[in-house]
């Protein structure tokens, strides 16, 4: 063999050796990766139990995804769906929960398409769609249309109805085009009066959630006039969606029907929401002799909060503290009726003082008002470091730091809140205020528009930004 041939052979052997080494390296990496992840569901379950609910469980989700891709029967699929649901329910922040509910829904859709005959998987599929906070996708709606008539049972009919309401498939005309629609509609309307009540109340709720409050209130008023069983639920709808006086009237009739004093408490709450404080106060005073336990404590606290004179407030809060001496909010309210040093002593002597961030925060607030307006932020940071998960501290801290104009410390507070997954809407509000002060209306608009909750001051301030911007 000449030298050229020998060189060619050596080159071929070298390339072959490199390919073999690459293959071995790939196998080693796969082995190490596999050995670094749980090999069975019990291992995944241990990781799930150890998860604190705050950070995205990426490793757990990857393992569940691997198992899901290999799921060859409905039993395995059902077992995995239960774990996805457990993660979603256990999440401790809304952001993480929304992400995990979406993962749960995505996997439920996949498994229901694969195993439509398994009743438990249908139930979890419907459950996942009921939990998602976003509108249902077209693929999810289309899958709802494929549910067979024989799949409908007493266990899933109510949940299916709620999902159809969410998907806006709740009209009789649309029911009829669904494979199971006519049967479900007949069951809801003709067979069981209680289900008919639920169907009708859900129609009212759907109108309200769609933003058509006047139509919702009108439909609810008509329903409550003809159906005694629906009065309670409709009263709550009125309370939540802007007709508190009508809610108060209905709570009174419900109380007359069953004699439960809790409905009188609800009636008083409704009058407070309507701004009729005198009426609410009279109701609580009339009830005191017939209340006990937590209901009595609630009435005393409300009376103390609404009373016009210091002596009345002291009387109601002291009576409450005789019943429940560790009531944090009553201690705070009562301390505010005392001279500065006496108030601080009352808080510090409480058996729960060292464990209560609220009582310790009140002593800081007391010092600001009593001693000096040049209070430094040191005490606030010490308290935040002791109780980094208490969102009330961030709420008050954001207000205080903004009031004194200490934007540098306020930015630090935002960072600490993010680090500990605190998502109070007040923080979003103050972030937007800072952006507005800096002339960044686009950022302020983005912050306020990102909020999906119910805090009134968020949309109110977003409207002001729109007014200036557009």
UniProtKB/TrEMBL annotation:
InterPro entries: TPR-like_helical_dom_sf. Gene3D superfamilies: Tetratricopeptide repeat domain (1.25.40.10). SUPFAM superfamilies: TPR-like (SSF48452). The keyword Membrane applies. Keywords: Membrane, Transmembrane, Transmembrane helix. The chain crosses the membrane at residues 12-32. It comes from the Bacteria. This is Tetratricopeptide repeat protein. It comes from Gracilinema caldarium.
